[in-house]
Design brief:
Layout: H1 29-34, H2 52-59, H3 77-92, E1 103-106, H4 131-134, H5 137-140, E2 142-147, H6 151-161, E3 166-167, E4 173-175, E5 188-191, H7 194-199, E6 209-211, H8 213-229, E7 232-240, E8 248-254, H9 257-266, H10 272-276, E9 283-288, E10 305-309, E11 314-318, H11 324-340, E12 344-346, E13 348-352, E14 358-362, H12 369-373, E15 379-382, E16 386-389, E17 392-395, E18 399-403, H13 413-418, E19 424-426, E20 429-430, E21 437-438, E22 449-453, E23 465-466, E24 469-476, E25 486-489, H14 491-500, E26 502-505, E27 517-520, H15 533-547, E28 550-555, E29 558-559, E30 567-568, H16 571-583, E31 591-593, E32 600-602, H17 615-618, H18 622-640, H19 652-660
Parallel strand pairs: 1-2, 2-7, 4-19, 5-6, 5-10, 8-9, 9-11, 14-24, 24-28
Antiparallel strand pairs: 3-4, 7-8, 10-11, 12-16, 13-14, 13-15, 16-17, 17-23, 18-22, 19-22, 20-21, 25-28, 26-27, 29-30, 31-32
Helix pairs in contact: 6-9, 14-15, 14-19
The structure holds adenosine-5'-triphosphate, oxaloacetate ion, calcium ion and manganese (II) ion.
Oxaloacetate ion binds next to helix 11.
């Protein structure tokens, strides 16, 4: 209150001499009139509730029905639509032997006070048995469906019901993936039937371990029975591929809020309208990861099995809760479906400059796809999975999955800032009181991860599509320290290195690997491809040629010696190298050719010490360098032997050139 001389003070008119407000004991005349009997101590309106339950019911309002109903739809259209949706979910969860789906109802079983908006439905196939013959206890119970919940709802579910779920100081949801903290490639099986026997890549080097249809059904039944036995399951209906012409509808049924939030972040999130018209999914994942497979079942070699049935368009996960299995499982499906449509699927990151120049970043796990495609000066199209079609490039996913080990705000600011409310943080260690995450702590695993929606990166390009790539960057984390930090590749060299897919696998992402070892993984992602590597290589060659893209090999690994004696190339230098590729400056540089691998290396790059550009300079022991170079060259040659009898594309010359583009000695 302002006093006469303009100074501000507290209400002095009711203050006593000691400065404390006086208690008014006498009502003024006007108060007595409006206020009959009760003595009030507040001026605000009282809440319009008689009981606490009533009060709580005021807190939440019903979500608005999504799209307005059109005139042709009757008053019950919304209810019908919801019923159809539930019927479709019950059909997804149907036991194949009992031929019925569970009774499903929407909503959280813990909220008993809430009556479901749609009555329970179940799915029943037409069959000749009398229904009573099929009745079992499981057919009498309800399964609650938590359908496309929001991140806030999933946080609450996780924190209430899943041990190991916590909110970190930046608002992310920290969680544990259980005993498995990486993928289990040796437990990934694919049904071999008449079609896939011919279509897919089988045998030595292939990731596709065969299983028969019957065994798949045994595991499917096990997963479905497990999921239906639960009080509630999470269902996500989402999309893959930002190219609208080639979008795939996926349904993920899972038992954990962690899995549902992970997929919410990683797949493309439908708008409310798209969700209403979702219909039947093109592909379904049954994630029963908490429940093991039965080792007495044919083909099972551990308690984990990730089973893909392309004919049924289904995947079953038993015995691993590592969420990356779902992400990469769907990637495998895309590696089958897209090439059938002449679209190349790629294990690559992708970004675009201000002028529309697109770069692809290929590389195995931990080589820098996410780190280097997340670039403050460029638009991020995606960090891990893309398609290259006649329309250009499109991201398959709606989110990013970044490694967090040793993450720092200074080196990777955009990723650091993306770890906020909504982000799933897997297997990190944090302070029990402040909830500050210690990214250097590898107590749970090296393979700590953050999964966030792509729009958490400020310069994400939405929709995540772009024109044809100008640069194709092959990343290798060379633990031997003999590959140059950057080399310019001819088309046959690009193909040779693409098919070889060399890196030193960084610890942790695949279960059981504890320190870097040289690895060859065709197409920089043999664990995910479905067809023979030469099929993808031929498509890549054709597209690069047609659109005039330049290939580069970038070593994000060791310099000055092998793992143990040298050190990893500074991220700041790699970023400068990548900048020079994007700007076109590196195309103009002077080049010299290396021995053995015959790689073209630049003599100068702005911001990078010239002496590191040729690894021969950085090793103090020149003999050790030469020996190591020969050793790696030998490993490349040996690895390539299995491809010697294959033809790559229609052009015989290209095949010859590719074979000649490897190390020469
Ligand atoms: N010179 C460098 N270039 C790139 N990354 C580097 C470099 N030095 C260290 N790193 C670290 O290497 C890791 C690269 O991991 P990144 O998440 O980019 O892998 P990725 O290729 O996306 O693998 P995945 O397919 O498993 O997601 C990051 O932790 C990054 O900080
Ligand atoms: O799939 C995972 O667990 C992480 C990943 O991106 C890869 O390994 O390529
Ligand atoms: Ca990544
Ligand atoms: Mn990946």
């Amino acid at each position: 209150m302002a006093t006469e001389n303009g100074e501000f003070s507290f209400n002095s008119s009711v203050r006593g001499r000691n400065g404390l407000p006086k208690i008014q004991t006498h009502k003024k005349a006007e108060d007595v009139e409006t206020d009959k009997e009760i003595c009030h101590d507040d001026s605000a309106q009282p809440v319009k509730a008689q009981t606490l339950d009533e009060l709580h019911s005021l807190q939440k309002k019903k979500s608005a029905p999504t799209t307005p109903l059109t005139a042709t739809q009757g008053p019950f259209a919304e209810e019908d639509r919801q019923k159809q949706q539930l019927q479709s979910i019950s059909a997804s969860l149907a036991s194949l032997t009992r031929e019925t789906g569970p009774k499903v109802v929407k909503g959280d079983p813990a909220r008993t006070a809430e009556t479901p908006r749609v009555s329970a439905v179940s799915h029943q196939q037409h069959h000749h048995f009398s229904p009573t013959l099929n009745i079992s206890d499981s057919a009498l119970k309800f399964t609650h469906i938590l359908y496309n919940l929001s991140p806030a709802e999933l946080y609450e579910q996780a924190i209430k019901y899943e041990k190991g779920s916590f909110i970190t100081s930046s608002g992310a949801l920290a969680t544990l993936s259980g005993a498995k903290t990486g993928r289990s490639p040796r437990d990934k099986r694919v049904v071999k039937d008449e079609t896939t026997a011919d279509d897919l890549w089988w045998g030595k080097g292939s990731p596709n371990i065969e299983m028969d249809e019957h065994t798949f059904l045994v595991n499917r039944e096990r997963a479905v029975d497990y999921l239906c036995s639960l009080e509630k399951v999470f269902v996500n209906d989402q999309f893959l591929n930002w190219d609208p012409e080639h979008r795939i509808k996926v349904r993920i049924v899972s038992a954990r809020a962690y899995h549902s939030l992970f997929m919410h972040n990683m797949c493309i999130r439908p708008t409310p309208e798209e969700l209403e018209n979702f219909g039947t999914p093109d592909f379904t994942i049954y994630n029963a990861g908490q429940f093991p497979c039965n080792r007495y079942t044919h083909y099972m070699t551990s308690s984990t099995s990730i089973d893909l049935n392309l004919a049924r368009r289904e995947m079953v996960i038993l015995g691993t809760q590592y969420a990356g299995e779902m992400k990469k499982g769907l990637f495998g499906v895309m590696h089958y479906l897209m090439p059938k449509r002449q679209i190349l699927s790629l294990h690559s990151g992708c970004n675009m400059g201000k002028d529309g120049d697109v770069a692809l970043f290929f590389g195995l796990s931990g080589t820098g796809k996410t780190t280097l495609s997340t670039d403050h000066n460029r638009y991020l199209i995606g960090d891990d999975e893309h398609c290259w079609s006649d329309n250009g490039v499109s991201n398959i996913e709606g989110g990013c999955y970044a490694k967090c080990v040793d993450l720092s705000r200074e080196k990777e600011p955009d990723i650091w800032n993306a770890i906020k409310f909504g982000t799933v943080l897997e297997n990190v260690v944090f302070d029990e009181h402040t909830r500050e995450v210690d990214y250097s702590d590898k107590s749970v695993t090296e393979n700590t991860r953050a999964a966030y929606p792509i729009e958490f990166i400020p310069n994400a390009k939405i929709p995540c599509v772009g024109p044809h790539p100008k640069n194709v960057i092959l990343l290798a984390c060379d633990a031997f320290g003999v590959l140059p930090p950057v080399s310019k590749l001819s088309l046959p060299q690009t193909m040779y290195h693409f098919i070889s897919g060399y890196t030193a696998l960084v610890a942790g992402t695949e279960d059981g690997i504890k320190e870097p070892t040289a690895t060859f993984s065709a197409c920089f992602g043999a664990a995910f491809i479905m067809l023979h590597p030469t099929k993808y290589a031929a498509m890549l060659a054709e597209k690069m040629q047609k659109h005039g893209a330049t290939g580069w090999l970038v070593n994000t690994g060791w310099s000055g010696g092998s793992y143990g004696s040298g050190s990893r190339i500074k991220l700041a230098y790699t970023r400068k190298i990548i900048d020079a590729i994007h700007s076109g400056a590196l195309l103009e540089a002077n080049y010299t050719k290396t021995e053995i691998f015959g790689l073209e290396i630049p003599t100068e790059i702005e911001g990078v010490p010239s002496e590191i550009l040729d690894p021969a300079n950085t090793w103090s022991d020149k003999n050790a360098y030469k020996d190591t170079l020969l050793k790696l060259g030998g490993l490349f040659k040996k690895n390539f032997e299995v491809f010697l009898n294959y033809k790559i594309g229609a052009d015989n010359n290209l095949t010859e050139e590719i074979l000649a583009a490897g190390p020469n000695f």
